Amino acid sequence: MGGVNVGGGGGGKKALDAEIPLIPFIDLLLCCVMFLLVTAVWNQLARINANQRTPGQVESEDQPPPEERVIVRLQVQNSGYVLASSAGDVINIPKNGDTYDLEELRSKLQDRKRLEPNRRDLTVVPEDGVRYDDIVDAMDMVVGEGFPDMSLSDQ
Question: Quick one: pLDDT at residue 115?
Fold first, then answer.
């Protein structure tokens, strides 16, 4: 136990001794440290790295202009998926009843990866009204099929 002695020193006052219980404070500190250590390890596993490209972003002046690349987009619509590119090719993947056809999307993404094996980027474009779970499933599929630089856009 830690103690504090407030001496009486004269004047006939009574000496005050206060004892501070240190063990509960040490227990609380140890529990907080353990909790922080355990949660810090697991927070990296459930993260999807995505960036948001917004129109009108200012680029630095010292960089050369980027070369024109074909932009590949996966549109998540209420009627199904649309895998399209700025080159003009469009692949429609309709829904199976009320659910999205993830297996067909997987095969189309694999075909796209075979066409351009060095491509790492793909933009997921959800439509208004699409459930968040369906968007996350599409994002997981895109990253899992070899497009780790996936971005999310509203265009």
Answer: 87
Determine the structural domain holding residue 81 and report its residue range: 69-152
In a domain, 5, yes or no: no
Give the integer Cα–Cα distance in Å for 143 and 50.
10
Identity of the amino acid at 82: V
Q: Is the pTM of this model over 0.85?
A: no
| 73, burial (CB in 10 Å: exposed 0-12, middle 13-18, buried 19+) | middle
CA distance 3 to 75: 68
pLDDT digits (tens, 9 = 90+) for 60-73: 566 776 677 778 88
Going by C-alpha positions, the residue among 30, 27, 32, 23 that lies closest to residue 2 is 23
| Structure confidence by residue, pLDDT tens digits, 113-152 | 888 888 888 889 898 888 888 888 888 888 888 888 888 8
CA distance 133 to 42: 22
> Domain with 99 in it: what CATH number?
3.30.420.270
Does some domain include residue 110?
A: yes
d(CA 143, CA 151): 10
CB 117 within 8 A of CB 90: no
For the stretch 19-45, pLDDT in tens is 778 898 899 999 999 988 887 766 556
